[in-house]
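From the pipeline queue, job 12 of 40. The input is one protein chain; the requested action is below.

Action: predict structure.
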Amino acid sequence: MVPIQEEELKKIIPVDGPSISEVKSYLDKYNDEYIVIKCGGSVLVDQNLFDHFIDNISILKKLGFIPIVVHGGGKRISNKLSEKGIESKFLNGLRITDEKTIKIAEDVLIEFNKEIVEALNNKQCTAEEINTKKNNIISVIKDDEKLGFVGSPNKINKRSLDKIIEEKKIPVIAPLGLDEQAQPFNINADTAAGYIAKELNARRLIIMSDVEGVLDKEKNLLPEINSEKISELIKNDTISGGMIPKINNCLDVASNGVKGVVIIDGRKKNSILFELLSDKGSGTLIRQ
């Protein structure tokens, strides 16, 4: 990472972001390493939060980071299905995706993929679409037959991804993949981001959501948890429902070479910057 002078940092870092002294000390700790950022929840449907997200990604790029964005889109898919009179059905937190649903999901996710890229480009931050129609990098295998066209990544085209990064573009990846017959599959966005982070041996995986992080029984934020604590929280139902697969995915990533896996609150302004560039961090850090 090329050193940035203090005067330049003052122009880049927002006044309500981390302090310049903190930013300077943390920038020294990163050196051309991948930061995978998965964005989901209400961050993607609230225009104000979306704009903050785009701002933070463009700031990371200006600071010399290598951000890789993986986005969700479940709420948009559900809204589109509802418009067409199709009921959204789920099994163990995953969308049951039949032939009609995969076509709609693919269209919605590709459209949203383009919107994120355009928003970054408008910030003079060149980005590149990655989806099943353009630059696809994810190969999948089918999950449970009952889920239909839902898959798990089993390979990424790292060469294509590296080429985009070498061209100084931000990869923006839709949670879609193709099987050996070029059939599109829907992928859980957390799973896609986790797999990519592992394959790239990323420095960090940041899961942006519409929750503060992992909370204890008294609803206080837990700044850090490990596998032992996670087992305890699942046993006493503090972690339950859809949070269980999210946490287990994070734990799997943390156990496979990614140094820092964290769930942060995308509703809080500059949460990405505070997580990467401040002493207090943001959300819950998951360790093995």
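Job complete. Residues 233 and 239 are 5 Å apart (CA to CA).
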